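agent> Task received from the user: take the single chain below, predict its 3D structure, and emit structure tokens. No templates, no multimer pairing.
agent> Plan: (1) validate residues, (2) run structure prediction, (3) serialize to tokens, (4) report one or two observations.
agent> Step 1 OK, no nonstandard residues flagged.
tool_call: predict_structure(input=
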Amino acid sequence: MTDRKRIYVLDTNVLMHDPTSLFRFEEHDVFLPMTVLEELDNGKKGSSEVARNARQVSRFVNELIESNGAQNIEKGLKLIRPKALRLRNEAKIGRLLFQTNNDAPTKTKLKQMPDNQILAASLVLREKNPSKEVVLVSKDINMRIKASIVGVPAEDYENDRALDDFNLLYTGHAELSQEFWSKHAKDLRSWSERGHSFYEVKLRKDEQWHPHQFLYFNGEGDDDTVMRVLRIKDGVVTLQVLDDYKGGSHSVWGIHARNREQNFALNALMDPDIDFVTLLGTAGTGKTLLALGAGLTQVLDQQRYREIIMTRATVSVGEDIGFLPGTEEEKMTPWMGALTDNLEVLTEPKEGGSWGRAATNDLLASRVKIRSMNFMRGRTFLSRYVIIDEAQNLTPKQMKTLLTRAGPGTKMVCLGNVEQIDTPYLTETTSGLTYAVDRFKDWQHSAHITLRRGERSRLADFASESL
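)
tool_result: status=success, residues=467
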């Protein structure tokens, strides 16, 4: 091939996943088959995220036609990015190409169905442009397999992939070597302030820490110092010794941390200086219980926030149960089993019997609100404690939509298990939760913890490991 420039054929699911994908291929050209435009037209109706994305693609294409002139469609439209997506180096832009009447259908033995028509258009495009490499981009694995069979190179859309290997994801905590204190003996400074102990050390080359990263020494002894990175400035790191929620007087709504990672999580959840917390872990690691306990303490006892707002992506594991009657809160109740299960644990009164339980439940009902994610656009949460459950089922775009709802004094907590993604076209590396963890790790007001040890029951632990 004499020309390094590529032509990317975009499948409908790529545009419905990310409408801005039109502008994400730098100097390369983008080709839209007629079948893709027809499928976008069929999918534009409704209020779902996919329908909104389809309408946005149509608006982008219309703006490009208006700015380039309809007479230039045959040659291709310059992919001039909208202001919000504009880059510093605007010299590297490709063209948007369409399937026109001059493109004769190629002879294939494939049946006449949308996917096959896109493949046929790709083959014709390759015949017309022998000097350029034609690549099909699709989120559909079967489509990529079929493309490989007919001889068209195919790739997944990876622009929103946070990292190449999920095992490289930031865990939020790191083990210190036993020589840590001796290494920093010369530059170590320590002091106490407001009941907390602090250390200040100079950052070494092998110490690549992030704000609010938790540091520990390997060992289960009570004398082990557990710290977190409070701030990093000009190569100097301030470390704070953590509160111990494992026992004694330190508890959150009557619950104690059962392991080291849960102690890290409670420290992050209870810190008013941290606006965004992500908790990642398998089933039974205590994500929801810790988030709710910390929320109830800060809403009812400390009155730091007005109320708890709980939401989640409504993705079914099995068959859909159809339409649900009632108000927004009543419709969301079947999806909120995790909330109600954990509230039962947290609201068991020590005194008062059934009367005390009923009074506690009435109090919590006024302060814990269940909201649907579908009606979040345009809202602003002021002084709220927002819990986003099952966040692994969100796309990066949906995650951005939710996090930008936060107003002054609001704390956002995202919970999820990337081993249980129920949404098609999302993987461990492209999930909105993974994306948020990777993008927020260097921000001064965010913290992330990966919980590893299950604390639900011996049955749940064994099932998690063996099945």
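agent> Step 4: summary for the user.
The longest helix spans residues 49-68.
agent> Done.
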